[in-house]
Amino acid sequence: MDYNGRGPISLSPVSHGIGVRFRDAVRSYLDVYVKHMSDTLSRGNCKYDDTELRNCYGDLLEAYIRTSHVVKATAVAWSSGFCSFASRLMSALGARKVVSGNLPGKGSNIHKLLSIASIKYLNAWKQRITGPDVLQGVISDSLSELEGLVQVDDKEREEILTKAQKMLHNLLGLLPEALLSLGIRPEDHGDLRFYAENEMIDYRLHIWGVPDLVIEHPGHKKAIVVEWKTDERYPITQVEKSQAYIYAMLEAIRLGHGETFNDLIEAIAPSDVSNTKVLPIIIRPNAAYSDHPLFPVGIRESSSKELHEKVRERIEKIVVAAAHLTILLMDVDTLLYGSKPGSKAEATRERCVASCNGGTYYIFRYTPSLLPRGNPKHQMKNGEYIYPCRVCPFSDKNSELQECTFYFGSFDKDKLDSLLWLYRFKVYRNRDRDMIAYRVLYELADYVNKLSGFEQYLYSGKHAGFRVDLDKESIVPMSISGGICGTIEVSFNNLGIIRKRVRVGVYDIDSGHSIYEGLILRRKLMPCEDLSSEMPRISLPRRAVLVTLIEDHVKYSTLGLSLFGRVEKTLLPGEKDEDSGVECGNDEVCVIVTPISPYLRLPFKIFSHYINEYGLNKALVVEADADLTNIELRTLHSLHLTLKFLEGSTTDIDHMLKSVEEAIAIAEALQYT
Residue 665 pLDDT > 50, yes or no? Predict the structure, then answer.
């Protein structure tokens, strides 16, 4: 897509600048959205300035490559497979259809059970230890291992044990043939690895997802992605199909097959289907399903060509949906020009508009026509609710709160609406800042080349950290005497980030000491620490950290095997912790990492299987902020509905409005302190 913004679209590398590689890669995905957005405007009787539109797309690219926003996979699946309005309610407004779609270990009890049982049974299977008794024993043992995380009565216990057994049996019934279709032969099975409930964040797709199960061959760089679905009554929905393919797309990029959009297409729906790299499959207690042309299961007769076209169209819809939802969260003008008063730049909100169907719209909030959607204003026809409104949880038919009509049924906004929308955008901007560490980590992969490259870099004796400037689009490696030791220093003035320091280190996992649901990590002092009289660069207690196991075949740390934890204790050289018995050597530092909340205990249990089964004993540890956006948005959503329908005196309502105004003013003032 040829479009030119107010700034250059292609920049020459600056030092090892964010890299033309990254810019061009992200652009290849954004181009898919731009193409469909342009088609929507041109075919929808919209009036706009064609030259200005190209400038706006150029501005969008400049903002898009800098934003830290990602969208939950569940919302993207709803947007591409059901209704874009429903997905907006979940992702941007905090409506509560999906609460736990992207927290590993917060799903149903059967998903928790399968996360452990699938890894244990598949590891036994590849050693040819199988059979009904083995399967039943593994499931029972797994449930015991999850004591405290899965709390059920006797009736529910029997139900989830039975369903889990049926689902694993269904998977094993087709797994050898599915692997063979990918070119993974029986003699290759010993090298397979099995990952469950792994958080994956990608900044090409701008998606954050947690696949149920990934069956991966690191050597062949191929995988099967399994989506567990416990319902046995209804047909597989388009949302469920989209969700399985979203996880397949994340896995393809993890394996190095999605550098550009065309690379991704050729990995999942290649011209020659035998070259497929990642295969998504849905498993139910009573059936299995795949509409992939390489390995169709549980579908009506359909030609390979038809399936191929459907899969490619689905992938394209997913990319457009993810970009659309991400852009809805972005403050494009702040990303481009900053948010302090006095900016002389003409805002995109003023320039990037189109007149369609009698209304004037900011094009970055307009829905591409490729995406399915209902009509919030007209949910009924001939006295009956029409699809998708008749089955939507937010429609007038199914929700007492009538969220879709409330937010999208009218363009009119009163003072309360305007205030709460203002505060939502404040939340979006804060999230963009809070997620910056993930965004920068993803970017740094192009510099260090692979996960193990961080250790080589930090212990090279030449370099000690990175200075990243998103305003200038530059990544500068800092020398051992440059004052940045074991640190990524990030600046992005437009978002108010000035030299934010993120500690980073590569640690050995100490499996010799065992503590309940925790990790003990050790690392040698870095050369820059040996030269300094200061305290070693080690995260402070109670600090949140992202722990990623180092795998040789994985490049992006945000797509690695990761968990989110909290630094419980830190030990300097020669110190000993009496509680755990951990003692640090004179040339090393030690960290004890524990779950940040009760909901995040499961990943620590899963990690122990990776460490023991696959010998993954090194980890990249990076300070990273927790994403609390959903909690804040749900609070605002509840407040908005409550105040809107509040019955009280005018004085009471005016008083509440004043309180909301004051809260927003204080929050905006704090932004610059």
Answer: yes
